[in-house]
Bifunctional ligase/repressor BirA (Vogesella oryzagri), 240 residues
Amino acid sequence: NVWTLATADEIDSSNTQLMTRAAQGAPHGLVLAAERQTAGRGRLGRRWQMPLGAGLTFSALWRFERGLSGLAGLSLVVGVAMVRALRSFDVPVQLKWPNDVLLDGRKLAGILIELSGDALGPAAVVIGIGLNMASPGEVDQPVANLADAGYQVGRNALLAELLNQLADVLATFDRDGFAAFHAEWTACAAFLQQPVLLRFSHGEPVEGVALGVDDHGALQVATAAGPRVFHVGEVSLRAA
Ligand code: BTN
């Protein structure tokens, strides 16, 4: 087993903590699971808050053997690992680009990936996952949770399966890149061939039809002005 699990009752953010420890040389495979975060962070600078006991909240440190050219692809394959784990408990989830996990079209879980250290050397990433087990956290869109949707899944069992799937997927991604997951990601994706709205941290939103992802995991969109490609980190997608 590649993982070493540490737990905390209350911390600011498991991602923040693990980023600090990564810079101090923490080992590959360190996982930090938190009962409660006082300053949980979401993508695009948003906050991630969950009532005590309502969520599964953890971060994992993965040191790649090579430099990471495709952070976009990494973001998507972590979503694939989550789909595999949740479907093994018969929870029929889908993915919303880049990596929100949806249940019945509503957000069940989010993923925050941060790069630690030098982007040119062997890459170390912190992969943070927040999943609504019971009453949902406060997020920017309609949310789902396992309990209210009628799924009885143990939190420890789910964490163990998520870590199993993550180890498998990350090892394959390190070796073969996103191409190895292109078909599986596409089969899990919500919103393909549908009208979508892309919102940026800065600038005007863009409307179009989501076509799919390229071999780097970037989203291909048909817009009135022609085809465009969008990269992770700048943008969030919703149904138009
Ligand atoms: C998002 O959908 O915006 C991503 C949410 C990621 C939340 C998790 S909870 C564990 C880890 N620690 C954090 O501060 N954030 C991530």
Q: What stands out?
A: DSSP finds four helices and twelve strands in the chain.
